[in-house]
């Protein structure tokens, strides 16, 4: 027997995680896991996400980080320094959430990633009803008009600093991975028992 202990000199991370964790870092956010919450920011650059075992099978670190970016853009650059981007998480749903979802859909649409990087939880219901034109209201209500107006501001804001460069790089890298994997998906079979779900990369 040998007393050799193999040194561990690196950590493997899913490449999609790596892209979006690096993008968070480029935008001044450090991401940590916290079993006590789903997602939260402290206004000082810390973004906490719930642990992997609390997430659904189609939830990704990438999608969660992107959604937080969209909150930040929608609510304004200064809200980086506010807890949870200025949302009151103990109150009823803030209408700006729907503007954020329209921004997320619009940004993803440019790279055909709208399905793959869709939001999680109950927000998916509204997201999935957003038309191809993300600035087209769902109805003629005053609330929807307000949601769309802010979404337009957010889309314009996303094209500028500090978000445009880092996020464009992340979307391009994600789309390239998706394209590289596309020829393999027909032969993909899960290694999990009784798992019939297709790969998220095919969305």
Can you give a write-up of this model?
The chain has 203 residues and is mainly alpha-helical. The chain has one domain (15-181). It contains 6 helices and 3 strands, in the order H-E-E-E-H-H-H-H-H. The chain has a 3-stranded mixed beta sheet, with helices on one face. Helix 1 (15-26) runs parallel beside helix 2 (61-75). The longest helix is centred in the last third of the chain and has 18 residues, at 164-181. The radius of gyration is 18 Å and the shape is globular. It starts with 14 loop residues before the first helix and ends in a 22-residue tail after the last helix.
Short description:
This protein is mainly alpha-helical and 203 residues long.
Q: Which terms summarize this structure?
A:
mainly alpha; 203 residues; 6 helices
Percentage beta strand = 5-15%
3D shape = globular
Number of domains: 1
Main beta-sheet strand count, sense and barrel state: 3 strands, mixed
Low-confidence stretches: none
Query: Gap between N and C termini, in Å?
Result: 49 Å
- Taking strands numbered 1, 2, ... along the chain, how are they ordered across the largest sheet? 1-3-2
Secondary-structure-based class equals mainly alpha
Number of strands: 3
Radius of gyration: 18 Å
Percentage of residues assigned to helices = 40-55%
SSE order:
HEEEHHHHH
Number of helices: 6
The overall pLDDT, averaged over residues, is 94
């Amino acid at each position: 027997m040998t007393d050799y202990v193999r040194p561990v000199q690196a950590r493997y991370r899913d490449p999609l995680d790596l892209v979006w964790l690096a993008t968070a870092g480029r935008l001044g956010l450090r991401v940590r896991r916290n079993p006590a919450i789903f997602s939260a920011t402290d206004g000082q650059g810390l973004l906490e996400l719930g642990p992997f075992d609390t997430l659904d099978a189609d939830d990704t670190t990438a999608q969660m980080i992107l959604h937080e970016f969209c909150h930040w853009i929608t609510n304004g650059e200064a809200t980086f320094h506010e807890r949870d981007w200025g949302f009151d998480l103990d109150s009823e749903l803030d209408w700006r959430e729907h503007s954020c979802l329209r921004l997320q859909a619009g940004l993803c649409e440019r790279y055909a990633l709208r399905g793959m990087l869709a939001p999680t939880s109950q927000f998916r219901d509204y997201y999935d009803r957003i038309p191809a034109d993300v600035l087209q209201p769902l109805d003629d209500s005053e609330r929807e008009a307000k949601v769309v107006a802010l979404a337009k501001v957010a889309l314009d804001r996303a094209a500028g600093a500090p978000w445009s460069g880092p996020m464009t790089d992340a979307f391009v890298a994600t789309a390239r991975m998706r394209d590289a994997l596309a020829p393999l998906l027909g032969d993909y079979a899960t290694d999990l028992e009784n798992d019939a779900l297709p790969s998220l990369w095919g969305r």
